[in-house]
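Researcher: If convenient, please comment on what follows.
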Amino acid sequence: PVAINEHIEQKLSDPIEIDRFGSYDKDIQLFTYYSSLGDVSVRMEDYLCLCRKEYLSDAIIDFYLRYIYEEKLSPEQKEKVYIFAAHVFNLYSTPADFRGWNDGENAGLSAQEKRYRRIEALLENVNIFDKDFIILPLMERNHWFLGIVCYPKLNGCFTMDGKEVTGADSRRNL
């Protein structure tokens, strides 16, 4: 990964054209963070949302989760974790009757099949059921949440040490 602070400082030291209304090009790309989960480009607009009292952008969320993954997790931990990009939940949760999803090869599919088809390409190179933790950034009503699915391959209730819980004990923990 690049030395992020140095790269940002270099970009910010470059002259930024500001027009007479105090506007600037929000699309100036400050840096790209290269990650095994996918690269993240951070633009001026993304960077400035950290300085102002604004909502965090998808790029900032993606950058930070990938930074934690690449810089803070051991290789063994990385094998157990998969992190989705911030836009995936919105892509998946868009209503099935949204225009463009009812024509062509999507016509006649169930809502579940249409949602899966939207993210199918993202799952091409990973089996999320081989992971112990799936991390999914969620944006709902202008607030970010972090959804964490633990042990998706398990079917049923288990204790932390792997013992199956059955009967009344399994219902108690729901």
